[in-house]
DNA sequence: TTGAAAGCGCTAACAG
DNA sequence: CTGTTAGCGCTTTCAA
């Protein structure tokens, strides 16, 4: 049941000109009707609408925006992994704010690949997104410099390198320091660190916070219990088992993000006297599992970043600023097990 | 440091024409250089590129696509909630396939609102997405009928109403039936059902599967233990507590999706002899928590739907088809607690 | 109330 | 190797 204009099984989409011809009016009149503009007689309007429906016409917003000079209403969000709840919560927070301003979120993921990051950014800019929210994977963002004063760009979660733009971060170093101090207070001295890729700024900062706390407590040889660069649950589980097999074994673990916490938990299943555990990032069901975390609000980060974007689009040209969100320890049991009680 | 064309704090973006003028060549030559086409002398090319960089030029893909008649390279995905792992896993599965075909995923969420669904669909179509992946919230999709033969549309998770298009579903009824039968086999007769909005087709089917199993087992008055329409964890927790307070209390629970399972788990925390539990949908850490589920693969659903889209775009005009993905019971302990052992 | 002509930024077709 | 002309689908003058 293809229309007469079917080409290779695909019907050609009618243009406004065809609708106008079908209705026996000029292009402009058809345009007026379909855009709800005044000064058209009811009869004419009805005829145009009838023709549009009959042909399956749908306005081409792209062409409209090109002519009217209006930019698109979409805002790009670049994250590393769509399926990581941490990023999808950022996306949700941002989407709510943007939608309230009539903007649409376009999400793309990089799989933590800096080449992908750059090409996605370029592509979105060529598509003329109004603004860009970026959780960077790359290590140099100077290529975004020419956008200054053109397209508002806000970085989230990780700071930009060689680029000055609005940024929303979490206080990683202080958060990690507090989380580890929490374990030290329970009497732990041998504390294992299970971390993600150390090329990520967030991870380096959390590692630094870990070191801060250990050094402040005068613990020696804490480096022995550091396992970094596990970017998925399986690797984190392996690192955890590896730590538990050390002699003497650590009595506590600090996991540096949600993925590593999940991996560690997997490795700890069935262990009779599991080490104490504090994880960076809160996660769903952490309360049911009784896992103490260094929590913060990804939605909040998305919300604030989106609000910056909206402000910039509304003409705010104040100097770029960096917002650092606080963390807080949420004690749920796993982080309060005393060192004396482990093994 | 705005450029000379700054308007309201925003620099105007240079056009190809301006680049050409700056480089002292024609429009077409500039176009050739910036598109990497042959037959341009190195010297000219260098001059054009220099001008482009100096002006901060970025090709306008929208205009290019308009002129070349090429449709965009984006595919729209409409889901109800970006932050529900179930949907983000669908998105990830789809994105991988699409990217491999040079297509970009554009995600938008509806918050389970059918008005939102329709307006997002219309908007994406006006933006000329190449195809549409829809997890519907609405109850009538006839408005998509004119797209037949124009834009490939694939429905996921829930079937379309009054519309014939490719669809990828999960075998909800059989899955629920099997999950409940699993509980019945462990001797349970009083089984509580904690369900999501019953206007959702998936929920009605899972409810039907629940009823199938109960009736086949000759259980009477099972309706007493049915609590539907909880769409968030808090409500599901309340329904669960309500069920546990019934006299006589159910010895087992069947939760009809990931959100309700999480809510139930929250309500069950600290209960000395918790009821047996089987949940529909697998979820992260279910293994650590020892929760028996009726599992299936959301990524797979996204992948298959995206593959249908790609096939359609490549000219496949075979009749539309519905793929129903199987589920399987993953026993992890919570669903194997015998009725005799509860209270 | 309606319409004709021009042009948004770009590429295709055809000259030079 | 380079340039000129036309036109994608639409809106914006400006005129009737």
From TrEMBL, chains A, B:
Q: What are the recorded GO MF terms, alphabetically?
A: DNA-binding transcription factor activity; transcription cis-regulatory region binding
- List each coiled-coil range: none
InterPro entries associated with the record: HTH_LacI (IPR000843), LacI/GalR-like_sensor (IPR046335), Lambda_DNA-bd_dom_sf (IPR010982), Peripla_BP_I (IPR028082)
Presence of keyword Transcription regulation: yes
Keywords of the record? DNA-binding, Transcription, Transcription regulation
User: Which ranges carry the HTH lacI-type domain?
Assistant: 14-68
Read off the Pfam families from this record.
LacI, Peripla_BP_3
What this protein is called in its record is LacI family transcriptional regulator
Organism equals Actinocatenispora sera
Higher taxonomy: Bacteria, Bacillati, Actinomycetota, Actinomycetes, Micromonosporales
């Amino acid at each position: 049941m293809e229309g007469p204009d079917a080409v290779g099984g695909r019907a050609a989409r009618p243009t406004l000109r065809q609708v106008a011809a079908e209705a026996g009016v000029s292009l402009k009149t058809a345009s007026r009707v379909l855009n709800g503009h005044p000064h058209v007689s009811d009869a004419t309007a009805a005829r145009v609408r009838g023709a549009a429906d009959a042909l399956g016409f749908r306005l081409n917003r792209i062409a409209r925006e090109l002519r009217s000079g209006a930019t698109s209403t979409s805002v790009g969000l670049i994250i590393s992994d769509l399926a990581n709840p941490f990023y999808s919560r950022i996306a949700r927070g941002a989407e709510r704010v943007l939608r309230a301003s009539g903007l649409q979120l376009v999400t793309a993921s990089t799989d933590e690949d800096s080449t992908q990051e750059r090409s996605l950014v370029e592509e979105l800019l060529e598509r003329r997104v109004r603004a860009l929210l970026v959780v960077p994977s790359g290590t140099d963002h100077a290529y975004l410099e020419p956008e200054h004063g053109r397209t508002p760009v806000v970085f989230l979660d990780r700071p930009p390198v060689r680029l000055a733009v609005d940024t929303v971060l979490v206080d990683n170093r202080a958060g990690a320091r507090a989380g580890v101090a929490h374990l030290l207070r329970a009497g732990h001295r041998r504390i294992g660190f299970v971390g993600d890729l150390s090329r990520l700024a967030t991870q380096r900062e959390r590692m630094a916070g870990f070191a801060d706390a250990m050094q402040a407590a005068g613990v020696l040889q804490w480096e022995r219990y550091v396992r970094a660069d596990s970017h998925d649950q399986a690797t984190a589980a392996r690192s955890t088992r590896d730590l538990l097999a050390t002699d003497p074994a650590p009595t506590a673990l600090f996991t540096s993000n949600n993925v590593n916490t999940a991996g560690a938990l997997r490795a700890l299943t069935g262990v009779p006297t599991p080490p104490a555990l504090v994880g960076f990032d809160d996660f769903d069901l952490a309360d049911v599992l009784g896992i103490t975390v260094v929590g913060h609000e990804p939605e909040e980060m998305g919300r604030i970043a989106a609000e910056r974007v909206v402000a910039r689009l509304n003409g705010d040209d104040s100097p770029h600023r960096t917002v650092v969100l606080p963390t807080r320890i949420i004690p749920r049991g796993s982080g309060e097990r005393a060192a004396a009680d482990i093994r």
